[in-house]
Design a protein that fits this description.
Subcellular location: Golgi apparatus membrane
Membrane topology: Single-pass type II membrane protein
Structural class: alpha/beta
CATH architecture of the largest domain: Alpha-Beta Complex
Distance between the termini: 65 Å
Mean pLDDT: 87
CATH topology of the largest domain: Spore Coat Polysaccharide Biosynthesis Protein SpsA, Chain A
Shape: elongated
Protein name: Hexosyltransferase
Number of strands: 16
Strand content: 15-25%
Helix content: 25-40%
Number of domains: 3
GO biological process, one term: cell wall organization
GO molecular function: glycosyltransferase activity; metal ion binding
Low-confidence stretches: 111-132, 412-427
Order of helices and strands: EHEEEHEEHEHEHEEEEEHHEEHEHHHH
CATH class of the largest domain: Alpha Beta
């Protein structure tokens, strides 16, 4: 970074940005990021602010400036390869005040690897309360194509409320959800917004990914300045309101430089929504879904500790990993902020044990400890809401079939052992 003390004020910050498009990996060019971060820092520290608190930044180059740093809402004009921005300085300060990129945890709220216990949580709460007086903020989730996640969304809303959060809860749904279940979702605390679902043009017909680009509708919630999106297969164990202090996109890592989109901070914007829609046929998602797509749009993001969005999986199946994760799943008071239930969902299993044990390629997601944790959240809900989490006759038949298949295959020993006595008791 430049030595800012050696400069006076600038009326306009001008930057020539590199553009290697269409070369492979052009959007992840670190030099491209560095140019944007220098421009943003100079604008914040030495840019002259107008009467509205905006600073002026101009870019020259064949590529569009990075939306991760400079919002499309702030474009004041374009002429050929020139882009002129009038940027709200306060928003830009928020972005450059934390590391950009996927390697370091976002500071100052976090130190490397763990929650910064020395940071005064009351300061976060007070600053968050002050911010909420100026801007509207909400948690949100999305259900599309079927009602299979209704029970999960009910449990999610109840878990957020039990942490003491008073933020709005907004649920986007399409017309596939029956009226009785919509009423239950509203009773659980969700403000309901019906949407028209968005098809993933690269997905096969009738697959899970077919309409998962409906998540883009979150950027249309412009009544709110910030949204913390949470997938409906997550339960929240500790208050997450401090996430509203983070910029777009803030998320926990999934693998390497990829973020997991199960919990993420975003800033609604019709301009951003249109940009996502415009590129949906162009971008190839690495996993066929919204997570892969968004990782190609928001290449540089702010990393949250994985305890914010702790994935329920055991990739190595080593004793140390199993012991560590099951310890975290079961601690009371909770050490994790949320648990993300990958694999077969708890409400689609019997409560006695995790039915991921019964299917060979799902056993990496099996944890009886995490399973019991979800059912504790379930049991604390009103009994009327619990009624929307019952197993259908068809699902009971599937569970019984899976158990018999597992018994016939005699899956392994230790953590993989199937307890046939438990099966019969649960039948």
């Amino acid at each position: 970074m430049p030595d800012y003390s050696s400069y006076g004020e600038f009326d306009v910050v001008v930057a020539k940005q590199p553009c290697r498009r269409p070369a492979t990996g052009w959007s992840r060019d670190v030099f491209r990021l560095q140019v944007h971060l220098v421009a943003a820092n100079v604008a914040v520290r030495r840019g002259r602010r107008d009467g509205k608190g905006a600073v002026k930044v101009a870019f020259y180059g064949a590529c569009r400036p990075m939306m991760e740093v400079f919002r499309c809402d702030d474009v004041a004009g374009r002429e050929g390869d020139w882009w002129m921005y009038e940027v709200e300085a306060e928003r830009l300060e928020e972005k450059v005040g934390m590391p950009a990129g996927s390697c370091k945890l976002s500071l100052p709220l976090w130190r490397e690897g763990t929650i910064n216990e020395e940071y005064d949580a009351s300061k976060v709460a007070s600053s968050s309360a002050a911010a909420s007086g100026r801007r509207r903020e909400a948690y949100a989730t999305v259900i599309h194509s079927s009602d299979a996640y209704v029970c999960g969304a009910i449990a999610l809303a109840q878990s957020i409320r039990r942490t003491g959060s008073a933020r709005d809860l907004v649920l986007l749904h399409d017309k596939s959800i029956p009226e009785a279940k919509l009423q239950a979702l509203a009773a659980a605390g969700w403000l309901l917004r019906q949407i028209k679902r968005i098809r993933n043009p690269r997905a096969q017909r009738y697959t899970y990914n077919e309409y998962n680009y409906s998540k883009f509708r979150l950027w249309q919630l412009t009544a709110y300045n910030k949204i913390v999106f949470i997938d409906a297969d997550i339960v929240v164990l500790r208050n997450l309101d401090l996430l509203f202090s983070f910029p777009q996109i803030s998320a926990a890592g999934n693998d390497g430089v990829i973020f997991n989109s199960g919990v993420m901070v975003l800033e609604p914007s019709l301009c951003t929504f249109k940009a996502l829609m415009k590129r949906r046929k162009e971008i190839v998602s690495y996993n066929g879904g919204d997570q892969g797509f968004l990782n190609e749009i928001f290449v540089w993001w702010h990393r949250l500790p994985r305890r914010i969005n702790f994935l329920k999986n055991f990739w190595s199946n080593k004793s140390a990993e199993i012991a560590m994760k099951n310890h975290l799943f079961g601690t009371d008071p909770p050490e994790l902020y949320s648990i993300h239930y990958l694999g077969l969902k708890p409400w689609l299993c019997y409560r006695d044990y995790d039915c991921n044990w019964n299917i060979e390629d799902q056993r990496v997601y099996a944890s009886d400890v995490a399973h019991r944790r979800w059912w504790r959240v379930h049991d604390e809900m009103d009994w009327k809401l619990q009624g929307f989490c019952g197993l259908s006759p068809e699902r009971k038949e599937e569970l019984e079939r899976d158990r018999k298949n597992a018994a016939a295959l005699a899956f392994g020993d230790g953590h993989w052992r199937i307890n046939v006595t438990d099966w019969r008791r649960n039948a």
